[in-house]
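ZP: hey, is the iron/sulfur cluster complex queued? I don't see it on the tracker
AM: it wasn't, my bad. submitting now with these inputs:
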Amino acid sequence: MEMLTDKEMVTRICELRKELNAVILTHNYQLGEVQDIADFVGDSLELSIKASKTTADVIVFCGVKFMAETAYMLSPEKTVLLPSLASGCPMADMAEAEDLKKMKKEHPDALVVTYVNSSAEVKALSDICVTSANAVKVVASLPEDRKLIFVPDKNLGAYVARETGREMILWPGYCPTHMRITVAQLEQRKREYPDAVVIVHPEARLDVIDLADEALSTGGMIKFAKSTTAKQIITGTELGMIYRLSKENPEKQFIALSEQAICPMMKMHRLDNVLAAMEHKQHSIVVPEEIRRDAVKPIEKMLQFS
Ligand code: SF4
């Protein structure tokens, strides 16, 4: 294949976007080169809403696989393309449908609240989905006399349980990227930047969240960064976030709370495989109809809160 420069690839992607009537949806953690060609960059809730409302025929999804599955389940008549099939989510892989079935049998009266970072099969066994942007609101709305199982992120679950005062049975999953953020790193950053505010993602551990000024989804971080009067913001989430925050707020300084908070799965999409995905209509993400039918219900219930 002939080697194209980045500029040529961008030009070709823009041509194909028109030819295919495609929209490129990109998560906040993606590489800058992929954020720059997107029609929309956002968190998983914002991307789900966009996917459900777009009039495009093709959605090129630059995020991890469960996000592309969600987009497909909301718009099964559209073609959803994932440029790199390797981009799975290790946390989503920590919850298997068979194990959730067993847990449900042990707690037959419990409602299952599932973070969107999960497989379609797990969603199909759930009562309602949440994202980090709406988890507190959704859980607070659930009947108080019902037991709750929260799948798969124990950190987000612990945070939501504390914020809502609801006891929840927590699945033992976690995000390996956010687990790398530690109290020691946070304390070190605070010593280095004593005037900075600290924002962290609720996938971080509770002891880290406790020391932060705000716990925010990535969409929440974007809004906070625009409105805060602070000039220095210590940012505790995946490093890709710093790119967008800095681009949109050039007068402010964003300091990574942890240089180790990199999700390799979010870095799989690049200009060349986005172009290949559009040229060859690969890799089309499809969820079998018998799973989609059940899995889309808890997603749609969640979207009513947006
Ligand atoms: S950052 Fe964490 S939750 Fe997000 S895709 Fe990577 S492993 Fe999954």
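AM: back. The mean pLDDT is 97.
ZP: great, adding it to the tracker
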